[in-house]
UniProtKB/TrEMBL annotation:
Pfam families given in the database record: Med26
Xref: InterPro entries: TFIIS/LEDGF_dom_sf, TFIIS_N
Domain TFIIS N-terminal: 48-125
Keyword entries, A-Z: Nucleus
GO cellular component, one term: nucleus
Name of the protein in question: TFIIS N-terminal domain-containing protein
Lineage: Eukaryota, Viridiplantae, Streptophyta, Embryophyta, Tracheophyta
Entry's localization field: Nucleus
Nucleus as UniProt keyword: yes
Annotated organism of origin: Triticum turgidum subsp. durum (Durum wheat)
Length: 217
């Protein structure tokens, strides 16, 4: 197998080969026919032919076939819902961002469109989280009421010199009051849980958005 020279078209694809794996992994869950495996084997055959290309014309034709493979994969990826956590936990976002500098115009345009769509989607998610947090912040938290109150009052009549002691009656809440108090506490705890969850989602969305914004367009 001939080693690629400095001017070999193989060098133009070398730094982008990993993008195929990232894109295939994102598409695979939505590929019931398992056609990604066949496409991967076809790409391996093309790469082997590319390494053994007899001249620049043959190598260029093979590189254009790889360009078409990537473009078709990006077209398929546009139809697959990509969750923000997938962009954080995998190299998909990084790989597609790199393809914006590919020599193939078709690949560049598709990659830029995908990145722009993901950014817009994340901005929408961040807006939804902020709206949800705003609603939670405006919830009037029910105040807990004492179920039983024991009071003892002592009244002293200075003018008459007579001390009148009044023992307060213990006020007990009715069973309905008990249930109302418990319901209020449960609602308050549920609201607190939603608020904490909302803050966590907001932090995740902001972290993801900042990581994308730092990447070159």
């Amino acid at each position: 197998m001939a080693a690629p020279t400095q001017s070999s078209p193989l060098r133009r694809w070398k730094r982008f080969f990993r993008a195929f794996d990232s894109v295939d992994a994102a598409i695979k869950p939505s590929d019931p026919d398992h056609s990604r495996g066949e496409l991967r084997r076809a790409r391996v055959d093309i790469v082997e032919q590319l390494c053994d290309a007899a001249d620049d014309d043959q190598a260029e034709r093979l590189c254009k076939i790889l360009d078409d493979h990537m473009a078709e994969s990006l077209e398929t990826l546009r139809l697959v819902p990509v969750m923000p956590d997938l962009l954080v936990s995998t190299d998909l976002g990084k790989s597609v961002c790199a393809l914006r500098r590919h020599e193939s115009e078709r690949v560049r345009v598709l990659a830029r469109g995908l990145v722009s769509g993901w950014r817009a989607s994340m901005q929408d998610e961040l807006t939804k989280v902020r709206d949800a947090l705003h609603k939670l912040d405006n919830i009037n938290m029910p105040q807990t009421k004492e179920i039983a109150v024991d009071q003892q009052q002592q009244h002293v009549s200075v003018d008459s010199g007579i001390v009148v002691k009044t023992v307060g009656i213990s006020k007990k809440a009715s069973p309905a009051g008990d249930r109302a108090g418990l319901c209020s506490e449960e609602k308050m705890e549920a609201a607190k849980r939603k608020l904490c969850q909302g803050y966590q989602e907001a932090e995740d969305a902001k972290r993801l958005r900042h990581s994308w914004c730092r990447r070159p367009r």
